[in-house]
Amino acid sequence: MNDIYSTKANLASRACITTGVLHKFSSNNRRNLTISTSPLSMGRKAAKIAKKKNAEDAKRTKVYGKFGKLIVTAVKEGGGADPVTNQQLAKVLSQAKEMNVPKDLIDRNIKRATDTKQVGFMELTYEAYGHGGVGIVMEVLTDNVNRAAAETRAIVNKGGGKMAEPGSVLFNFERKGVITLSCDRSQEEKVFELATDAGAEDIQARKDGHEGFVVLTEVSAFSTCRRQLAEAELAIDENETALKMVPLTQVEVDDDTSDANIALTEKLLELDDVDAVYTQ
Predict the structure, then answer these.
(1) pTM metric for this prediction
(2) Three-class SS state of 77
(3) By the 8 A CB rule, do 161 and 264 touch?
């Protein structure tokens, strides 16, 4: 089971970016990807669309919140609110621009950072075991470590999970660039060729209910690959595109156990300090 920003649809499929057949790139090897959908009644379809929209809005809010905290940290640690002289801030602002973070949000957080009462944020990683032995990694950006630790532990315990020792879960994950494209199968060859030239590692069909592809890259190639795909006018799903922790192995569980882990993940993401949750 895997999720990046942990929508229920993604977790339930357990196949957002790490399941299915991975397609290694080769000029002599082009595999067709099959995308299928199940028929739905109009009522169910409308409800599903509304649910997906709410999930996408929640993801966008998380992304914006994370960048707000990163901006505050960059201003305080990097030497002021001027990106010309503050290279740390310049880097964060460049990333925010790539992710289409609104300018007013950026300006608001730069101003917020100049408030002497506002403290900086600290990046933390917590690990836990969910139901069925599923590994969980939580990325936290907080201005109060004690609060973050206490609230995260409380949610995990109440949700039937167990906090894990540092490193006991994380070794099952690897940070990768994940670029999610919204396009139909007619653009498959274009995606393969552009992604290959841009240094991507793998590509596979989306399995989160949307048509398109997921491109995986090394961390160092993420920005370049993303930019080249965007310049080729391929539609990038910004809510699902970022540097993410991808599980190296998966833990198979039954539907009831999966639902329990979904509920736990959703509760964790309700915490302001938690920016992302990844599961096996």
Answers:
(1) 0.70
(2) helix
(3) yes
